[in-house]
Amino acid sequence: MATDHQTASTTTMLRVMNERAVFGEIFRLGPVSRPELAQATGLSKPTISVALANLGRAGLVREVGLRAGPAGRSAVLYEARPEAGWVLAVDIGRSFVRLVLANLAGTIVTRIDDPSGSRNPTDLLAQLTGLADRLTAQVGITRADVTLTVFGTPGIHDKETGSLHLAPNLPGWDLPGAVDRFSVVSPSPYLVENDTDLAAVGEATHGLGLGVAHFAYMSIGTGTGMGIVIDGKLYRGARGCAGEISYLPIGEGDPLQDDPAATRRGMFETVASADGIVAAAQRLGWTKATSAKEVFDAARAGDPIAQRAVEVEVNHVAHALAAVTAVLDLELIVLGGGVGVQGGDLLIGPIQDRLRHLVALQPPRIEVSSLGADAVLDGAVAVGVTAARDLVLDRTVAANA
């Protein structure tokens, strides 16, 4: 026979499940009536009424008007209160740090982009804290009022040691406990995610990957990386390192593969990143080349050395994608990062042509990211909003326990 404690626990669990289902459908459907919620969730109308009452008392849901129905009847409409929770999304790039504040509806309310200061952990944390204070003050809250913060960083977050692996552009963050210092910026719960993985989530949620079950976001800029989506879900691998294409081997012949940095950064990243493009142009005779953008602009203008440097890049990327195609059989490759976005018009056609010769498989289509530099932030908001909605519900349950 069930004890009173077991009965109470079961009742509480059912109530939480019902409220979670109703809360989720309100976000999905927008202003919605009780009958519509009953149809969407499969719950009875009385159960819907109880859930709405509890969510309303917790400040998570509100009435927003009436919808005229048949025979003159009107249905009360409900919506989630977007300001019931806040998500702070942080993109820690090499040149810029970008922060946005979004509400529970996923709407970005305010944003700050700031040139990256020192990459020393102490200095970077101080910069992020100051920017977060400015951002939250703009909507009349404090950092402590943020429901969840999502940090997008290079490398892999080792949760056992609290360090970032494979992030050479962030010196000092590979030390044990370094990642735990993000609590200085976020007094509330926070997540640390690989930036390229977040970009893939952003593309899946708002960009070219929407509705595509198998695709990858390939970032080429100051570094290289890949976020992989399989069966509509982000694929992380056994240790969270899936997509670290910077360590793909390349064919023999590129002088940069003997550079000592190739072991630390990875062979593919050494030759295919922005620095690799500049080095290729310099090696071919354009000794004053200073940036990948400069090389791309010159190639468009017909400069033969710049065009040959672009051909070198095409060859490296095509070989990398040939390996990825043979293993993963993807529908789509979304090209992002500074190099991918700036040079996409010069790269995509030749890469597709090379792929047809490198693999006897149907190659994926390749497109430049529609989200540009915002892909990481869009993904961070998407991940953060989903988790933040659960957090505000959990807090409501705890308060009513």
Write the layout of secondary structure elements.
Layout: H1 4-29, E1 32-33, H2 34-41, H3 45-57, E2 61-68, E3 74-80, E4 86-92, E5 96-103, E6 108-115, H4 121-137, E7 148-153, E8 156-158, E9 163-165, E10 190-194, H5 195-206, E11 215-220, E12 224-230, E13 233-235, H6 261-265, H7 267-272, H8 274-283, H9 292-300, H10 304-328, E14 332-336, H11 337-342, H12 344-358, E15 365-368, H13 375-400
Parallel strand pairs: 4-7, 7-10, 11-14, 14-15
Antiparallel strand pairs: 1-3, 2-3, 4-5, 5-6, 8-9, 11-12, 12-13
Helix pairs in contact: 1-3, 1-13, 5-13, 8-10, 9-10, 10-12
Please characterize this protein's 3D structure.
- The chain is an alpha/beta fold and 401 residues long.
- The chain has three domains: 4-80, Arc Repressor Mutant, subunit A, CATH 1.10.10; 84-198 and 376-400, ATPase, nucleotide binding domain (Nucleotidyltransferase, domain 5, 2-Layer Sandwich), CATH 3.30.420.40; 208-370, Nucleotidyltransferase, domain 5 (2-Layer Sandwich).
- 44% of the residues lie in helices and 20% in strands.
- The protein is built from 13 helices and 15 strands.
- The protein has helices at residues 4-29, 34-41, 45-57, 121-137, 195-206, 261-265, 267-272, 274-283, 292-300, 304-328, 337-342, 344-358, 375-400, and strands at 32-33, 61-68, 74-80, 86-92, 96-103, 108-115, 148-153, 156-158, 163-165, 190-194, 215-220, 224-230, 233-235, 332-336, 365-368.
- Strands 6-5-4-7-10 form a five-stranded mixed β-sheet, with helices on both faces.
- Helix 1 packs antiparallel against helix 13 (375-400), helix 9 packs across helix 10 (304-328) and helix 10 (304-328) packs across helix 12 (344-358).
- The longest helix is centred in the N-terminal third of the chain and has 26 residues, at 4-29.
- One of its GO terms (molecular function) is kinase activity.
